[in-house]
Amino acid sequence: MPVRVVESNTPAQVSGTDPGNRSQLPPSSLLGAGQAFSGTQNVSNQQKEEAWRVNVQIQGIDLEHGYLCGTMEALNVPMADTPVITFWEGEIVDGKNYTFYTGKWEATREDDMRHWSKFPSFSPLQGQVESDGGRQLDLNNYPYIFMRWKEQYFVNVGTDCGLTIAGFYYVCFSCSDGSISGFYYDPNSSPFQKLELKTVNEGRSGFSFSSYELQ
Amino acid sequence: MPTTTTSAASSSSSTASASGNNSNRQADVFSRLASSDPEVKLKALREVKNQIIGNRTKKLSFLKLGAVPAIASALADADDSEKCNNILVQSAAALGSFACGFEAGVQAVLDAGVFPRLLRLLTNPDEKVVDAGARSLRMIFQSNQAPKYDFLQEKNMEFLFSLLNSENENVSGLGASIIAHACGTSVEQRVLCEAGVLEKLVILLDGSLSQREACLESLATVLKNNPEAVSDFVGLESGRHLNSVTELTKDRYPRTRLLSCLCLVVIYNTSPSYFVNMGTKSGLITTLLELLNDPGQSGDDAALGLSCLIAGKEDLQKLAYEANAIKNIVDILKTDSELQTKRLQGLFLSLAELCSKLEDCRCSFVSLQVLDLLINALRHKDADVKAAACICLRNASRSVKNLSAGRFNSDHVMLPLVQLLHDPSSSVQVAVLGALSNIVLDFSSPKSSFIEFGGIKQLIELSKSMDPDARCSALRALRNLMFLADNKRKELFISDVNAQGFACLISDPEPPVQEQALALLRNLVDGCISSIEFVFDEDGLILDTVGRQLRKGPQAHMAIQGMYVLTNVASGTELHKEAVMQQLFPQATGSENFMLKFLQSDESQLRSATVWTIINLISPSSPGAYDRHVKLRSAGIIPQLKNMVNDACLDVKIRIKTVLGQSMSFGDNY
Fold first, then answer.
1. Average pLDDT, integer, range A100-124
2. What single string gives the DSSP state of each residue in A117-178?
3. What CA–CA distance (Å, rounded) separates B538 from B304?
4. Which residues, including other chains, have CB under 8 Å from residue B16's CB and lie 6 or more apart?
5. Domain final residue, candidates B147, B180, B204
6. pLDDT tens-digit profile of B151-176?
7. CATH code: domain of residue B412
8. Residue-level pLDDT at B21
9. Does B2 fall in a domain?
């Protein structure tokens, strides 16, 4: 989601992956194409408390490459007349395609650890990640999925809308109830803006699933 | 014997000057071909031969006048005496020329029954006669119409080896050509290898240009898809010959470079372990890319060769992408508007393979304006080119990012595709359906060009096709079109297909068609809760049909979609949940509950879908949840779930935990 710019400096880093010999993560029903989530992003800073309502929809997921993508819609954005929609792409931390270390987007290893450790579900993994990058971790059986989401472009407004999508989110998804929490990271924005989302059932009494099949 | 200048001049004159003079001369040639005077006959033979060499129009013209039988007679009538040798040479040469790259010519030569006579020329004492015979036969063996060569017959094998052993390069080349074009089965490959053909062929690798090329072609045929043959070949002199073939990819002759590349492609596709060296793979790709620029047949074959090499192999596609393959191909397509259909087909298929798995490649399509090239190709007159362009579009549109950005959702792209749905060629129809089924996935943007062009009606028509693949593809496209669709879009479909019609689709004899119909239904009943009502039309016909299909013990893929239909319906109102229960527990007794079977399936997705149905049925917020839970428990379903708490699939395990948690809230013990 686009945010205001705040001044700060961090060094650039070369992106790297550490494939190892892992298989892809198993599918999770609630993290699939068509799934919708709704909640808020806390965009407070020193001046005031503010939260935007946010809707997220997953459009595609490719576990083999640790990739997923979707849209994010921010409502009640003060400087916009309409909801602002962005398209984002995600990296799934599976130990095969991506690790807990970002290696790009001006995020250092320290930044990574600072953010991941804000998720309670990360604490059992923290020791191993700090010691060897988490090479030995069996993420296939862990009921949380860690990701990074990076917005790529605005879908319905121009880039001159006064908002920026320069940063990215550290995201934690709970496989059991489909809830999502995240922290926005952008060296030039307020730190630790929290994203909290829950699954949406569109007025239904239970869960409903759509699907498509690409040829 | 010198030819006359008039005949030489007429061979280069335009056919527009088909005056009485010209046809008189042709008729005259025929009477001279039948002459009993060998000098006259010889001159006539030379005249025809000189006119038709490299001239397809002349070949056709002489063919229609019956030149081939006349020349065949001349060949048959000539005895083996020395003075007839010139006639033998010229008639063999003329027949070979008719057969060269001209299928009608090959047909005529074979129909004239002269094939055995040509074979006998190979044992003539005169070297020139042998040469002419061998060359002529090679032309015939380039064609698919060449007589079947039975390698399993001992005398045929002996004859073949006598050719391969010959010092005459045309004769040994003929032997290799026969293998290249007639060896088709793994049995034939084995028999040839056991007879020692590989050892003979590799000698030709060090021979003349013509022998090398014939050898490379025949090696590719003998080794194709046969790991044992490849192992035998690589084992010869500890890999020396594999190295030789690899070296030949740097030869100065383009055709040699191409044929050695194609040989390596065959070896790689059969036994990739011989290519651990990244450099060899890169070199092979780079050479094929360079050959794409060759104006002749080598360029045509290189394009198809490249697509064969990288097909299904992400690592090679990546190497090709990094070697700038896309840009190279696009430059050729953009600058040369007169490309042969075979080359166009090969180039589009190569592009298709490049973007089959790599998102970077698909994204570069957009920046390099490849879409426009593809749209133009959709209007080409040749079916193979159109089909290749559709396949390319299909693979490029696997990019969710580009679909989401609406890159394909424009009139410019959609209109020619929709028009191709009526193409007379079934391969084009199949290909365009594949492309459309991806491209209609517009993530519910308000405007769909496809719908505006009447696409829904066309797909509904195709869902009733005689061809099950067409039915399946059409339903898949409809399914994707209805993904996250709003009520307005769903209504466009439902208004044209009544419950009866849809029930027929679900009960299609082909399981893949049933699967897509159910997947489409799943999407129709997702979204706004009112869309569930569709399954209740005509007294619940559709829901009954779903239940009936599930009770039949279907294949897993179909069952998964069926269970998600029930899951989605069960996420509705009390009435909807009760209707699902009626399908799970129909009045008729004696039928084993299919849910128990599904829960024990090897397919984790089926187990998962079944558990989701249960989750929705006993969702605590609904009034009848407790009673439904009681029924599920007494049917053995809840106990079955208790046995599955350690399911191998994490997702299934988590869903079961949810059910058992709900169960506990109803007072059940965990």
1. 96
2. TTSGGGHHHHHHHHHHTTTT--GGG-SEEEEEEEEEEESSS-TTSS-B--SEEEEEEETTT-
3. 53
4. none
5. B147
6. 999 999 999 999 999 988 899 999 99
7. 1.25.10
8. 62
9. no
Task: Compare CB distances from B572 to A205, A210, A213 and report the shortest one's residue.
Answer: A205
Helix, strand or coil, per DSSP, at residue A57: strand
| Domain with B73 in it | 20-147
Supply the pLDDT for residue B308: 94
Domain-located, residue B97 = yes
d(CA B76, CA B54): 25
* CATH code, domain carrying B70: 1.25.10.10
pLDDT digits (tens, 9 = 90+) for B375-414: 999 999 999 999 999 999 999 999 999 999 888 888 999 9
Q: Which contacts qualify for A182-187: CB closer than 8 Å, 24 or more apart?
A: A182/A149, A183/A115, A183/A118, A184/A1, A184/A3, A184/A41, A185/A105, A185/A107, A185/A111, A185/A115, A186/A3, A186/A6, A187/A8, A187/A9, A187/A10, A187/A106
Lowest mean pLDDT among B146-155, B224-233, B333-342: B333-342
Judged by CB atoms within 8 Å, which residues 519-538 of B form the interface with A?
519, 522-523, 525-529
Residues of B in contact with A144 (CB under 8 A): none
Strand-pair partners of A37 = A56, A199
Q: How far is A60 from chain B (nearest CA, A)?
A: 6
The SS3 call for residue B81 is coil
Q: How many domains does chain B have?
A: 2
Three-state secondary-structure class, residue B592:
coil
Q: What is the spatial distance between Cα B10 and Cα B22, in angstroms, rounded to a whole number? A: 8
Chain-centroid distance, C-alpha B645: 45
pLDDT for res B18: 52
Q: Which of B103, B121, B147 is the last residue of a domain?
A: B147
Confidence at residue A6, expressed as pLDDT on a 0 to 100 scale: 35
pLDDT digits (tens, 9 = 90+) for B33-43: 888 888 888 89
Could you read off the pLDDT of A161-177 as tens digits, one per residue? 777 899 999 999 999 99
Average pLDDT value for chain B = 90
Residue type, B167: E
SS3 A59: strand
Inter-chain CB proximity A59 and B404 less than 8 Å: yes
CA distance B486 to B456: 15
Helices (H), B486-527: 487-494, 499-506, 511-524
Residue pair B216/B259 in contact (Cβ under 8 Å)? The answer is yes
Asked, for residue B359, whether it belongs to a domain, the answer is no
SS3 B82: helix
Asked if the structure places residue B585 within a domain, the reply is: no
Interchain proximity B398–A87, CB inside 8 Å: no
- Contact of B105 with chain A, judged by CB distance below 8 Å, is answered with no
| Structure tokens, B108 | 């005529």
